[in-house]
Design goal:
386 residues, mainly alpha, 2 domains, 4-stranded mixed β-sheet, 15 helices
């Protein structure tokens, strides 16, 4: 039963997400239709041909000048000039035909599935030259559908052309007995009708192929429910990770609020230990009343600067010891006693400040912080960095 549920979950029944569609575009997998391109190119080719016939007199006149030699003097220079003229006319003719074809192809792809440049699709893939993979593609359902479309297209085009020619067969069979103007008059009706009918058939085939390709493309991009879950985890994160992040954010926000509220207690501190500006910890210790110093306020960054400013305003002694300040910050909490491992270091600092207030001239004391209490500014033990 569980196995059946697992199989059902893997069925690709869900519509593709925008992220799935975008990833497919990166891989060069976009909607396109070969038959739409065939119809568009033939239509543009016929249009270019009609324009060439209508306005081809000037072009033929230019080409004819290439075969006229006005003089035999300096024949080599004359031939070279004619050659350059012929190359220029050939370039113009190529642009006349090529540019419209390129434009119609770009517009066709833009209308069908959108323009897309995918460098990733240009990378070499070994399975493209794998003979086994090639055989699988040759006998796949897609290949059979393409074969069926090709046969249907040939049958329809041949059938339409035969039907039209059969309708005008009496007139065509009388060609030997007709004059040239009569023959041209018959062809003037037959050829446009034949071309128009063939274009209609090609348009119908293109429309059918477009909707088939669209259906196939969407089917290939469909996702299973597990795919949707995996994508959600990749984009939004797993529920467990998100819950942990929210918990950490809540703890950070709560600690920040606690640190801001504790700023008012800085004036009651005995001393402030700083880093000198990145960290600040305000301590209170009263001999006989407390077993150990208590942290009244602490913070880093802006909070640390505010603690220092308030201490200076309240004339609370400030002592700079980066190692000790970080140790107090990362191991202590507001309202709690300092860690027992820091008793000696803090006692040295408080004794120094007390004697300094009495007016004694002293050198800065050596503050000895245990190795397992020495942190960098990110809260990582210095012993782990080495």
């Amino acid at each position: 039963m569980a196995e059946n549920n697992s199989d059902d979950a893997q069925e690709k029944t869900e519509e593709p997400t925008q992220r799935r569609i975008d990833k497919a575009k990166e891989d060069g997998q976009i909607l396109t239709s070969k038959e739409v391109f065939v119809f568009a190119n033939i239509s543009m080719g016929l249009l270019v041909m009609l324009l060439t016939i209508s306005y081809g007199g000037v072009g033929l006149s230019n080409w004819s000048t290439l075969f006229r030699l006005d003089s035999v003097d300096k024949l080599d220079d004359l031939i070279a000039g004619k050659l350059m003229d012929s190359l220029w006319l050939l370039f113009q003719s190529s642009m006349l035909v090529g540019v419209p074809i390129v434009i119609v192809n770009l517009f066709t792809q833009a209308a069908v599935g959108g323009l897309n440049f995918a460098p990733k699709a240009m990378k070499f893939k070994g399975n493209r030259i794998n003979p086994i993979s090639g055989l699988k593609r040759m006998f796949s359902m897609k290949a059979l559908v393409e074969l069926g479309k090709s046969i249907l297209k040939v049958v329809l085009l041949f059938g339409i052309a035969t039907a039209i020619m059969f309708q005008f067969m009496p007139g065509v069979l009388n060609f030997p007995s007709l004059t040239l103007p009569k023959m041209l008059e018959v062809m003037r009706y037959v050829i446009p009708l034949l071309i128009g009918a063939l274009l209609v058939v090609l348009a119908i085939i293109a429309a059918i192929d477009y909707f088939w390709q669209r259906h196939t493309h969407i089917k290939q991009l469909r996702m299973s429910r597990q795919d949707l879950k995996d994508e959600y985890k990749q984009t939004e994160g797993s529920p467990e990770v998100k819950a942990k992040i929210r918990r950490m954010q809540a703890e950070t926000a709560s600690r920040g609020a606690q640190q801001r509220e504790a700023l008012d207690d800085v004036a009651n501190a005995t001393a402030v230990i700083t880093n000198p500006t990145h960290f600040a910890v305000a301590l209170k210790y009263e001999v006989g009343d407390q077993a150990a110093p208590v942290i009244l306020a602490m913070g880093r960054g802006i909070i640390a600067q505010q603690i220092i400013e308030r201490a200076e305003t309240a004339q609370v002694s400030v002592f700079r010891s980066p190692i000790l300040a970080r140790a107090l910050y990362f191991t202590g909490d507001i309202g709690a006693e300092i860690s027992q491992s820091l008793y000696n270091a803090v006692a040295v600092v408080l004794a120094y400040l007390y004697r300094l207030e009495k007016g004694e001239a002293l050198q800065l004391p050596d503050v000895d912080v245990p190795e397992d209490m020495q942190f960098n500014e990110f809260g990582k033990l210095l012993s782990e960095d080495t």
